[in-house]
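Q: What would this complex look like in 3D?
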Amino acid sequence: MIDFAGVTVQRGGTAIIDDVSLSLPAGSFVALTGASGAGKTTLLRLANALVTPDVGRVCVDGADVARASAAQLRRGIGYASQGVGLFPHWTVAENIAAVPWLLRHDRAAMAARVATLLDLVELPRGFGDRFPRQLSGGQASRVGLARALAAAPRLLLLDEPFGALDPETRASLGDRLVALHREQGLTTVMVTHDLADALLRAERVVVLDKGRIVGDGSPAALVASSHPAVMALIASPLDQARRLAALRHGSGQ
Amino acid sequence: MMLDARWSRAIAMLPDRLAAHLGVSAAALALAIVVAAPLVMLMTARPRLRAPVLTAAAVVQTIPSLALLALFYPLLLLVGGLTQRLAGFGVPALGLLPSLLALSLYALLPLVRGGIDGLASVPPETLDAADGIGMTRRQRLFHVELPLAAPIVMGGLRVAAVWTIGAATLATTVGQKSLGDLIFAGLQIEDWALVVTGCIAAALLAIIVDMALWRAETGLAERRWRKALLGAAMLVALVTGVVGWYWQGRAPAAAGRPVVVGAKSFGEQYILAELIATRLRAQGVPVVVRSGLGSAVAFRALAAGDIDVYVDYSGTLWDNALGQKSVVPRTEMLATLRRELPRRHKVLVAASLGFENAYALAMRRADAERLGIVSLSDLAVRAPNLRLATDTEFQSRAEWRALQAVYGLRFTRMTAFTPTLMVRALTGGDADVITAFSSDGRIAADDLVLLTDPRGALPAYDALLLVGPRRPDLVALLRGLEGAIPVAAMREANWQVDRDAEKQTPAQAAAWLADAIAAGPP
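A: Here is my prediction, written as C-alpha cells for the whole assembly.
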C-alpha cells in the first residue's frame, strides 16, 4: 500500500528522515512511534504529500505521490491529526462531509453519509447541527475521525489522534478505531508517542530514532528487542505495569 | 431669528456636501481595498515583505492628512504635465483625484494590518486539516482562511472607514467638495452653526457606516446571512441613495463647465468670492464657488485651470508665483506682477481691487496719540518700553526681520497669541502694540490705528483679482472692480462677518459690499 524507498528529508542542514526504506502492505494496522523529534510525524506526512522528500520516492498503491495532484491524492486518503483541526465556522455535519463536498457528491448522499459516520464514531445524530466549539475534546476527536473516513478511503493516516484526551476516552476511542479498521478493511497508519498504545493496538510497530528506523516488527518481537533506543522507550511503560501489578498484589516496594 | 437663519443656511448646504463626502470616502475606501488585497496576499506568501510594507504604510500614517492632501497636488500637476506632453491628455490635479489618492493611501495601513493579522490568526492545525483533506490553495483561502480572518479583517476595514470619513473633511483644502466645506468656512468666519452641522454630519456618517460594517461583520462571524446582508444592504443603500441624489442634482449644470471662483480659507476670501460670483451671474455666466482652498494650492490651481478666478495679494504672489524675496516699492511690485504673471503662468491681473491686506503694526488710538506715534519710525523710539503681541507665525516671518533691520525695533516683551486673543490682549491692556492685517474689520471696530511705514520695510499686499488661462474673457466682465473697494469698505464687510452680534453670512456681506461699490466712493 505505502512504499518508502530511500527517503531523506532535510530541514536546516540536518536529516529529520534519514534514508528510510519501508513497505506497509494493504490491510495492516501500523503504529509509528519514537521519542519526540524522531521523525514519526514527518514520515506519516510524506504519505499524503504534506511533506515532500528531498531524496527518494514515496509510492501509494504503486503510484509516486510526487506525480499526482496533491489535492486529488489527499482527498483519497483519510487524515486526522492531534489538533483535530475541525473548521470552527462549519457545523459538525459540514465538517464530516468536507471531503465528499470537495469531491462534489450530491447533497442527499452527503446527508446519508454524515448520519452513517455519526453512528460509526458513536455520536448522536443530533450532533450534526452543533459547532465545534460546542464539543468536548473526545467528541471533537470522534468528529475528526468521522471526517477522515467520510469519503470511504482505503488508507487512513492518524497523527496522535487521541493525544490530548483523558485515558478513559482514549481507551474507548482506541478500541473503536481498531474495530473500524477491521470493519472497513482499512490500511491504518497511526503516529503515537505512547509506546504502550502502539504495542497494545497495532499489528506492527515501527520505532524511529533520529530519522532512522531502529525497530520494526510485531509487538511481541519489539518487546524482545535489544536496540538501546527501543529498550529505552519500552522501559518506562514496562516499569509502570510492573509497579501497578505489584501494588495490586499488596506487596509495594 | 438670526440663529434660525444660520442653522437653516447650514442645513441647506448639507445634502450636496454630504453626498460628495460619502462619494469620495467610498471611492477612496474601495480603491484602498483593491490595493490592499493583493498586498496582503503577497505578504502572507512572503513574510519577508511584511516589515518594509508595514513600515511604509505607517510612515504614510505619520504624515498629517492635511499635508498628505496638499502634497498630492503638485505631484499630480507634474504627472499631468508629463501625460500632456507624452500622451496628449492632462490629469486633473485639483478636486477628486488628489483626495482619492491621499485618502486611500491613508486607509491602507489599517486594511493591510487587519488583513495580515486576520490571516495570521487562523490556527495552524485548521490550515493543516484543510491541506490534509485535500483543499486546493484557493479553496483553503476562500472557505477557511477568509471566513476565519473575517472578524479581524472587518475590524481593520471599520477603522479605515471611520478614518477616511473623518479625513475626507480635509479634502476641502484641495478643492474637493465635502463636509469640510461647512467646517472650514464656519471656523474662518466663526459661524458655529456651520462648524457644528459639519462635524455632526461627519460623525453621524462615520457612526452609521461603522454600525453597518459591524452588522455585516458579526453576521459573517455568526454565519447569520440575513444579518450580514442587512449590514451590506445598509451600506449600499446609503452610498447609492446619497450619491444618486448628488448626481441627479448636478445633472442640469453639466451642460457647460461653469466658471469656478476660488477662495482661500478666510472670511475676506469668502466675501470676495461671493461678490465675484454674483457679478458674473448677473452677466449670465454660470458660476460655482470652490472655497476653503489651501493658500499654497490656490495660485497653482488657477494656473492649471482648475479654478478660473480668485483674489490673491501682491506680496504673496511676489514670493509664491515669482519666487522673489526682496522687498520692492509697491508700484514696482505691481508693474512686475502685471508683466510677469501672464508671461510665466498665463495668469492675467484683471483688477487691483483698491485695498491692501498687509501685515502692519497697530495700537489703540488713545495710546498712539498720547505717545505721539504715527509711523514705525516713531514707534522705534518708544518700543523699548512697550509690549508687542503677535500672531503665532509673525516672529518667524521675513516681515519681522525686515522691521528689525530697517527700524531697529526692540520691545520689552514679545508674546505670540492666536489672532482673536491677540486683539483681546491689546484691548484688555496686556499689550501695547499688535500685529494686524490692514483690512481686518476689528481695526475700525476697536478704534485701532495702523502705523505707517515711511521707509518701505514691509512689502505691499494689494488685493489683485486674478483670471486663469481658460477664461481670459472674464477680464472684461470684471474690469469694473478696478480700484472699486476702498480699505474702509473691506474692513466693514469683514467686520460684518467676524463680529458676534448681528453676524452676517459672507453672501450678505458681499451684497452689502456690492451696494457700497455701486454707490461709489463716499
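A: To summarize the key features: Residues 245 and 251 of chain A are 9 Å apart (CA to CA). The mean pLDDT of chain A is 89.
Q: Very helpful, thank you.
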